[in-house]
From TrEMBL:
It comes from Saccharopolyspora gregorii. Keywords: FAD, Flavoprotein, Monooxygenase, Oxidoreductase. This is NAD(P)/FAD-dependent oxidoreductase. The keyword Oxidoreductase applies. Gene3D superfamilies: FAD/NAD(P)-binding domain. Its cofactor is FAD. It comes from the Bacteria. Signal peptide: none annotated. Belongs to the FAD-binding monooxygenase family. The keyword Iron-sulfur does not apply.
Length: 465
């Protein structure tokens, strides 16, 4: 077994993103590992604490010794005759030079997520070359950037922006969050008092399980509430924002989106820190469009100029399917957009291949944990049946749907390059952990997976419509 990592160190997101205030946007009781529960006091933890937790877990369970750093998988080709994957690797040496190497394996599990970590989404801003200040992107935060006493404009209103604004407002002269349109933002408690009481009364292992399931139940119920009763959800979130900001007019203008809650991901702010920064005058929110950059800052479509010494382009990430690996099966290039995802993990037409895709409405790692357990079950089934290779095959009449059902711009820009989900059964990628847990851990596999003959992969019965 080998873990291939393109970066120099472990930690992924939590090592890459180093902008001020970086933190989780899911509670750590569900984002953390179920076999090594998070023991921190704050539900939304800071990035440095999460990085330490990830690395300590890897060291404790002997994972670190399996990782081959500076090793990027460029392409992977499956051979049915050999029942093997051949991986083409780009390996960076200590001097920065890159060499090509080849590695073979029997089963390939892509855990690269669906973001492009080498490039962010960077809209073209007219006149940006004339700007006299500093323009930065959160994905590539410059070391030692000093924003103390400076005027800062943060372009965006997603999870990164709502984290940056209150964090930078502690030292900046003023921070402005510039958004084209509002995002649903909700304050959440900075501490989980119920969890603290459970941990005080019960053994740690029991308390951690109860806290985890308490949070899963709440997030699942709230998501279903938003989906089934969007009008009531809009009213609830608007009232919560109005209490936090104490300015109903500002809530109507800047914090009441046109879309319904959870049509895009909901942003959580611990202790309402974003609202507090705005309420206290350390930050402001402006809803307008960028007309162009000017030497002194950003000119808006309304004609107003936002003076800035630092502009942060928190305009989102780019999607990239499974690390950008080029897949081929028996000499045929795999068109991911024509394939389906089975049980949220394996891909039709691609033998012995699985992907790790998290939830969009809950902690990423809830589904990541289920996907990994499913892979272990598949490998166990193959061993018991003596199968060297398996592939899921969709049934007839399966209707195609986008893999991610979110209206967010970053999703809509790139989702067409991803495999699709179906409209029923094991081909539907649900956003419901309790149902997925039952299906993944207890559902039968043998009737849904097809052994791959030496002659090659069977053609799917239908590619969807």
């Amino acid at each position: 077994m080998a873990v291939l990592e393109a970066r120099d160190v472990s930690g992924g997101t939590w090592d890459l993103f180093r902008y001020p205030g970086v933190r989780s946007d899911s509670d750590m009781a569900t984002l953390g590992y179920p076999f090594r529960p998070w023991r921190g006091s704050r539900p939304l933890a800071d990035g440095a604490s999460i990085l330490e937790y990830v690395r300590a877990t890897a060291a404790e369970f002997g994972i670190e010794g399996l990782i081959r750093y500076r090793t990027k998988v460029v392409a992977a080709e499956w051979s049915s005759a050999e029942s093997r994957w051949t991986l083409r690797l780009a390996v960076r040496g200590a001097d920065g030079g890159v060499s090509e190497r080849v590695l073979t394996c029997g089963f390939l599990y892509s855990c690269a997520g669906y973001y492009d970590y080498e490039r962010g989404h960077e809209p073209v801003f007219p006149g940006v070359e004339s700007f006299g200040g500093e323009l930065v992107h959160p994905q590539f935060w410059p070391e030692g950037l000093d924003h103390a006493g400076k005027r800062v404009v943060v372009i965006g209103s997603g999870a990164t922006a709502v984290t940056l604004v209150p964090a930078m407002a502690r030292e900046a002269a003023r921070v402005t969050m510039l958004q084209r349109s509002p995002t649903w933002i909700s304050p959440v408690p900075g501490r989980d008092r119920k969890a603290e009481r459970l941990r005080a009364w019960l053994p740690e292992r029991v308390a951690s399980r109860l806290v985890r399931w308490k949070n899963i139940a709440f997030s699942t119920a709230f998501f279903q509430f938003c989906q089934r009763f969007p009008r009531a959800a809009r009213g609830l979130l608007t009232r919560v924002s109005a209490r936090a900001l104490r300015d109903e007019a500002a809530v109507r203008e800047h914090f009441t989106p046109s879309y319904d809650p959870w049509d895009q991901r909901l942003c959580a702010v611990p202790d309402g820190d974003l609202f507090g920064a705005v309420r206290e005058g350390r930050a402001e929110v402006v809803t307008d469009h960028v007309e162009s950059f000017v030497p002194e800052g950003v000119r808006l479509r309304s004609g107003r100029v936002l003076a800035a010494d630092v502009v942060v382009s928190a305009t989102g990430l780019r999607l990239l399917a499974f690390g950008g690996i080029s897949l081929r099966v028996d000499g045929r290039a795999v068109e991911l957009s024509e394939e389906f995802v089975w049980r949220g993990a394996m891909v039709s037409g691609v033998p012995n291949f699985a992907v790790c895709i998290g939830y969009t409405n809950a902690s990423w790692t809830l589904r990541a944990d289920l996907s990994s357990r499913l892979v272990c079950r598949v490998l166990g089934l193959m061993g018991r049946r003596g199968w060297s290779a398996v592939v899921p095959v969709p049934g007839r009449g399966l209707r195609a749907r986008p893999l991610l059902d979110l209206a967010s711009g970053y999703v809509q820009r790139s989702i067409g390059a991803f495999p699709r989900q179906g409209d029923r059964g094991s081909w539907r990628v649900r956003q419901n952990y309790p149902l997925d847990a039952v299906a993944t851990l207890r559902g039968g596999l043998a009737r849904e997976l097809v052994p791959v003959p030496v002659s090659g992969v069977r053609s799917p019965a239908v590619t969807g419509s």
